[in-house]
Amino acid sequence: VQFVESGGGLVQPGGSLRLSCVASGFTFSGSGMSWYRQAPGKERELVADISSGGAFINYAGFVKGRFTISRDNGKNTVYLQMNNLKAEDTAVYYCRSNGVLLRKYWGQGTQVTVSS
Q1: Beta strand ranges found along the chain (DSSP E)
Q2: 36 near 98, Cβ under 8 Å?
Q3: Most exposed among 24, 28, 36, 114, judged by the fewest C-beta atoms under 10 Å?
């Protein structure tokens, strides 16, 4: 099981980034997926999750209206479109499968830094 996150970087407040996570080693189309983030000195927290077919989506309150999670099962990829970024969004972003046996696997994450 492997997750490879990409798309992070340095962006000014109010800017946008699109994160991607390519998954392998399991049946991606049968698994709900989530994006998490971890800021320095803080616990890892859930950002958004999406069901296996994409019909059901949930967002943490702090990103509602700014972030959009989506997936392409043909490409084994889950995305996180982040708009109107704020300094407090600075963190390492990770994706993860919601499958009970797969939750222990994490990728290396991608760093998002929001700063002027």
Answers
A1: 2-6, 9-11, 17-24, 33-38, 45-50, 57-59, 67-72, 77-82, 91-97, 110-114
A2: no
A3: 24
Residue 52 φ/ψ, nearest 5 degrees? -60, -35
Q: What is the DSSP letter of 101?
A: T
Confirm if 14 and 4 have CB atoms less than 8 A apart: no
CB of 68 closer than 8 Å to CB of 13: no
Say if residues 106 and 86 touch (Cβ distance below 8 Å): no
Q: Is 88 helix (H, G, I), strand (E, B) or coil?
A: helix
**Position 39, amino acid:** A
